[in-house]
Specification:
mainly alpha, globular
Length: about 90
């Protein structure tokens, strides 16, 4: 996949996830790893994105989702995005 294509898909993925988070009536601290992964997988399917992008998050540390309210959704997205980009670039996520 071309770098620009990947970056566009990643942007689409996180735009969709932010929409999912913004629509929730509960605080993000109640989001579990499974809920986030499910939302990401759904966004991939809806937007016809390559779900292989989610591989670096398979063992994502659940603590990241604790203590975050919807106000901090951007921080959560940045953290997840960084994990994917580090792994894609050959580092340890």
């Amino acid at each position: 996949m071309e770098k620009n294509d990947f970056e566009k898909q990643l942007a689409d993925l996180f735009s969709g996830l932010k929409d999912c988070l913004d629509q929730q009536e509960i605080e993000a601290r109640f989001f579990t790893h499974g809920m986030i992964m499910g939302a990401l997988a759904a966004v991939c399917q809806l937007k016809n994105l390559d779900s292989a992008m989610l591989a670096p998050l398979a063992k994502f540390d659940a603590y990241v989702f604790g203590e975050m309210s919807l106000r901090n959704a951007e921080r959560l997205l940045d953290h997840v995005k960084t994990r994917i980009l580090v792994k894609v670039n050959g580092g340890e996520a």
